[in-house]
Write a structure and sequence with these properties.
There is one protein chain. By secondary structure, the protein is α+β, with helices and mostly antiparallel strands. It is built from two helices and three strands, in the order ααβββ. The chain has a three-stranded antiparallel beta sheet with strand order 1-2-3, covered by helices on one side. The longest helix has 19 residues. The termini are far apart.
Length: 104
Amino acid sequence: MISLDLMRLRMTYLILIDFMQGHLEVHHRFVPKVKCTLRKTFNTTGYDVLSMRIDDNGIIEYNLVRSITRDTDTKNSAQSITGYLGQIFEPDNLGVIKDKVCYR
C-alpha cells in the first residue's frame, strides 16, 4: 500500500513534469513560474511552503509544514517535510535544454 505522503510526492512530480513539457518560458519568467506551480501543488496537498530555493544546478530545496488534528487529541500538531526536487532545466527560446555537463 502506498503511503499518502508518497502519493502526494508522486502527484507533485507529475504536475511539475507536465508543467515543464507545456511551458517554454524565458529566464525572468521561468523560475518564478516553477515556484508558483510548486507552491500551488503543495498547497493542494495540504502543505504550506515555509521556504523554497532553486540553486544554480536546477535543484529545488523545499521546506513544508501542515497542521495535523487528531480525533483523540484536542491540540493541533504540525508535520514538517524538507526535501529536494529536480533537476529542472530551463529551455532556451527554441525549446532546447542545455545542461552544464561538458561531453568530450
